[in-house]
Amino acid sequence: MGKNSFYVTTPIYYPSGKPHLGSAYSTIAADILARWNRLKGKEVFFLTGTDEHTKKVLKEAEKSGKEVKPYLEAITLVFKKSWEHLGIKYDRFIRTSDADHQALVQEILSQVYKKGDIYKGVYQGYYCYECEGYYTERDAPGFICPVHEKKLDLLKEESYFFRLSKYKQLLLAHYKKHPDFISPSYRKKEIINRLSEELKDLSISRNNSDWGIPLPFDKNHITYVWFDALSNYLTGVGMFEDKKLFGKFWPADVQIVGKDILWFHAVIWPAMLLSAGIALPQKIFAHGWLTLKNKKIGKSAGNAADLDELVKKFGADSIRYFLFKATPFGDDGEYAESTLLDRHNDLSNKLGNLVARVAGLAQKYGIAKTKNSLLEQLDIEDVAKLIDELAFDKALITIFAFIDLCNEHVQREKPWESKDRKVLYELVDSIKAIAILLSPFIPGTSQKIAEQFGFKLDFKEIKKPIAVKKISRGELLFSKIEG
Ligand code: MSP
Question: Which atom of ligand 1 lies nearest, measured to the CA of 232?
């Protein structure tokens, strides 16, 4: 038996604009894992939130004519609403301006400082304000930001440094001892290669701004974004405020991040934890980018992929299904509304059709208990393993192959002619298994099916034969959408 708790996190998003399909991607992935583990009966903590101490937030607040605080209040509400519309059920929405977080960051900084891992120096480098990060020429040829394709700014400032270089060997040893710490494995290779080259100490503060958390040992400096942001994962489960909660959930089981911030999570973050004497998370999983015309989707994708418009048009479940069916989780995936429509139609034509036909026939002829041989053709343990491994596309392919099989079974057995109540029982019982396994991916639809057929969305229910009951034809699960 593994431990009975599960802690999953998303990156915290810069609230310098409303969330888009790209930010939804990390958050839905974490929600799938959270729901999956709840389904298996684990106690789950799912953390998401916003990373507020960035200069871009100040600029956006100014543009909108608001003070920073009301600007942030409003924009975080927009995030929360979007997540709600996408069926995302988190346990805490953390904001880096939260009082407990500010206190925690200062405490962690004090510990690392006492350890002798922070010193004062001068930093000079090429900086991208959009990424809030410095680049070397190797990573940004011609000093053009590889993500935003804008010229980098040369900055020189007094700064405190974290002795990151000291942790190189310890990090490499950790990766070796815990081969799944950085996943997928092809991303691990990139990190090891980069780490094996020169690892410089990290600038962690600046003294030309007061938008941030002051260093406890020098109030003229504020922490530079990453030391502040990464610590949110500790605040989220109450490291200094709620020892019981922290004991239950730390270390995190899976931390979902985009490939662009893997370096921060796979190198800087564990080095900070090693310095502060805190246990390391189990797994950092880096996913690829959702692209539009082969460019990373961001705020500028605008109307082509406006999250609210898409939810209104397709519904949360079709978007969730599309995002994780279309591309192996880890790789980049190209977004096109026509592909989203195709996936929506898959749901409607395969799952929607099966449920509607079986419910209609079961209403007419009833069901009679029998052994469910049909379900033997679905390898439930295999699906469970795939979801645990974050191979979401493969899990969905397996479940949908079984849905096809059930539809074929209806065609072959023709229960509308045979009126065979046992055949209908097998189909109803199989629909139960399908809806339970799909519930982390398409929670709203699974809930409707569970209510219609009268079963609980609980992993333990999959293999318990469904009780014989009256079944009625329900509402259509998926609406017809014209292309
Ligand atoms: N604030 C930092 C993260 C700090 S975590 C301690 C940050 N914020 S972000 O808003 O720029 O990005 C947050 C996450 O969204 C990243 O994991 C990023 O990869 C993800 N995505 C943003 N656009 C994306 C796509 N187009 N596709 C997939 N994920 C994308 O970085």
Answer: 6
Atom of ligand 1 nearest to the CA of 229: 6
Architecture field, domain 336-461: Orthogonal Bundle (1.10)
Separation of alpha carbons 372 and 376, rounded Å: 7
Say if residue 110's pLDDT is above 50: yes
pLDDT of residue 130: 84
Pocket test for ligand 1, best of 8, 10, 12, 13 (most atoms within 8 A of CB): 13
- Taking the centre of ligand 1 as the mean of its atom positions, its distance from the CA of residue 27, in whole angstroms, is 10
Q: Which atom of ligand 1 is nearest to the CA of 54?
A: 1
Pocket of ligand 1 (CB under 6 A): 11-14, 22-23, 25-26, 51, 229-230, 232, 257-258, 260-261, 289-290, 296-298
Model confidence band, residue 133 (pLDDT cutoffs 50, 70, 90):
confident
Q: Is the pLDDT of residue 5 over 90?
A: yes
User: In Å, what is the CA distance from 297 to each residue of 52, 132, 293?
Assistant: 21, 18, 9
Position 192 pLDDT exceeds 90 = yes
Q: Where in the chain is the domain with CATH 1.10.730.10?
A: 336-461
Q: What is the pLDDT of residue 1?
A: 47
Q: What is the pLDDT of residue 301?
A: 65
- The Cα-based distances of 296 to 21, 26, 63, 287 in angstroms read 10, 14, 25, 13
Which tens digits make up the pLDDT trace of 302-361?
666 789 999 999 999 999 999 999 899 999 999 999 999 999 999 999 999 999 999 999
H/E element holding 182?
strand 182-183
Helical spans, DSSP H, in 93-242 = 99-114, 168-177, 185-196, 225-230, 232-235
Helix axes 307-314, 337-346, angle to 10 degrees: 30
CATH 3.40.50.620 residue spans of the chain: 5-287
Structurally, at CATH architecture level, domain 5-287 sits in: 3-Layer(aba) Sandwich (3.40)
Question: Which protein residue's CA is at the shortest distance from atom 23 of ligand 1?
Answer: 22
Task: Please state the rounded mean pLDDT for residues 88-99.
Answer: 98
